[in-house]
Amino acid sequence: MHAHFERHVYHRHSHDTYSFGVTEAGAQSFTCRGSAHTSAAGMVMAFNPDDPHDGHAANPLGFTYRIVHIGPELLADVLSDVAGHRAGLPLFPEPVVADARLASALRALHASLLGGGATTLRRDELLTSAIAATVRRAATAPPRAAEPSGSAPVARRARLLLQDRLLDDLSIDDLAVATGASRYAVYRAFRAQYGLSPSDFQRQLRLRAARELIARGEPIGEVAARTGFADQSHLTRWFTRCFGLTPGAYRRAAG
User: Which residues form the HTH araC/xylS-type domain (predicted)?
Assistant: First the structure.
């Protein structure tokens, strides 16, 4: 995405990808991992998969930014060819990074993906160099596997149920039965592990499914019905709040 926002407010959400943004003008404020952050012009935003965050303009003039989403599998594939990289996926500890060279690399990659006459080979080169630079300059080493906390297995079982029964009208009691925990324990564990409530995460899964169908050219009204939304306006409202553009605009961009 390459966009300018003045009044749009992103609803709290996360992505199943790594997300790297560059603020080009103005400033964007957001919360992530329990803290408030501001990305001003020239700064880089780096989100790990499933990092919940929101976002809005820091002042009435708004902000302009570019952002690219890179799947963990693609990022791992690129890093496998980078000399000296430790095995495993990296972790970005800070959501905002002030690094002009990194911002330049990401801008070049983003511009090539939007067109601009870059060949496929050139886009691949820019992807490799941008990922390598981002990991080298902003990431920590892959975290060591840790013993899961007592609440982590509960949260994971609840997440699997939400993924497996995407369109079902699940209740908190359904999650409690599936995890063997109390209703409050499920809610608390899920929020602690993923930063979203189970209902917010369920909606996000449905939005991701809708996004895939819209990109394939499916009628938006049918997509709404197939992904658990009440109607097309319901889908449009949430799609815009979480992705920053309407389903119709996304379909035109994806096409």
Answer: 156-253
Do the domains 148-195 and 200-255 sit in the same CATH topology, yes or no?
A: yes
Q: Give the fold, CATH level 3, of 2-138.
A: Jelly Rolls (2.60.120)
pLDDT tens column, 86-137: 667 899 999 999 999 999 999 999 999 887 678 888 988 999 899 989 999 9
Q: Which helix (H) or strand (E) holds 37?
A: strand 35-40
In this structure, the number of other CB atoms found within 10 A of the CB of residue 231 comes to 10
Treating both helix axes as pointing N-terminal to C-terminal, what angle do 152-164 and 172-179 enclose, rounded to 10 degrees? Answer: 120
Contact 52, 19 (CB under 8 A): no
Length in residues, the chain: 255
What contacts 24+ positions apart, CB below 8 Å, involve 123-130? 127/78, 128/78, 128/81, 128/82, 129/105, 130/20, 130/105, 130/106
Residue in 121, 12, 1 with CA at minimum distance from that of residue 67: 1
Q: Which of 61, 43, 49, 45 is nearest to 4 (CA)?
A: 61
Tell me if the domain spanning 148-195 has CATH number 3.40.50: no
Q: How far is the C-alpha of 231 from the C-alpha of 41, rounded, in Å?
A: 38
pLDDT of 147 over the 50 cut = no
